[in-house]
Automatic annotation (TrEMBL):
Antitoxin component of a type II toxin-antitoxin (TA) system. Gene3D superfamilies: YefM-like domain (3.40.1620.10). This is Antitoxin. Coiled coil: none annotated. Belongs to the phD/YefM antitoxin family. Pfam families: PhdYeFM_antitox. It comes from Geodermatophilus obscurus (strain ATCC 25078 / DSM 43160 / JCM 3152 / CCUG 61914 / KCC A-0152 / KCTC 9177 / NBRC 13315 / NRRL B-3577 / G-20).
């Protein structure tokens, strides 16, 4: 585990990010008191396409009949 103060963290940010990506726990302190912990972000799981059951009818993209269209105007 790495404990580091804010001023040094500003100077070594790239190194600290690399350490966190490797799984090392990095704690940044202010005035000797731990404030934050750097951790890697987990990649989100891929979302499946077509996750909603059902289907779209063939006539979905066809123009509305005149009487139906008139009700929307």
């Amino acid at each position: 585990m790495t404990h580091i103060n804010v001023q040094e963290a500003k100077t070594r940010l790239s190194q600290l990010l690399a350490a966190a990506e490797r799984g090392e726990e990095v704690v940044i302190a202010r005035g000797g008191r731990p404030v934050v912990r750097l951790v890697p972000v987990d990649e989100p799981a891929p979302r499946p396409v077509g996750f909603v059951a059902g289907s779209v009818p063939e006539a979905f993209a066809e123009p509305l009949p005149d009487d139906e269209l008139a009700r929307w105007e």
